[in-house]
Amino acid sequence: QKLPSLVNIPVAMFVGGEDTGWLQAMQDTEKEWTRLGGKVTLKVIPGEGHILQSLTARELFDLLESSR
After folding, report:
1. So what's the pLDDT on residue 21?
2. Residue 44: pLDDT band with limits 50, 70, 90
3. DSSP characters for 37-66?
4. What is the pLDDT of residues 21-40, one digit of tens each?
5. Cα(10)–Cα(5) distance, integer angstroms
6. What CA–CA distance (Å, rounded) separates 52 from 44?
7. 12-to-34, 43, 52 alpha-carbon distances in Å
């Protein structure tokens, strides 16, 4: 319900492909954020659960740099 007031903030979301508790919610949020005209990146990490073991700091910094 509060997404419209936050849509001007670029958002990056990461979720494990096996995270059954969060995957669908993240996909729904990405869809709605995009529909509202926001800038959103969703990266689904295949084979990962709730704790993302393979996500590196480099990936995070590269994503942050690309948003400048």
Report:
1. 93
2. very high
3. T--EEEEEETT--SS-SS--HHHHHHHHHH
4. 999 999 999 999 999 999 99
5. 12
6. 10
7. 12, 8, 15
The contacts of residue 58 (CB under 8 Å, 6+ apart) are: none
Map tokens 């996500």 to a residue.
55
* Residue labelled with tokens 């949020």: 29
Find where tokens 């480099």 sit. 58
Contacts of 60 (CB under 8 A, 6+ apart): none
Give the dihedral of Cα atoms 43, 48, 50, 51; nearest 10 deg.
-100
The identity of residue 41, as a single letter, is T
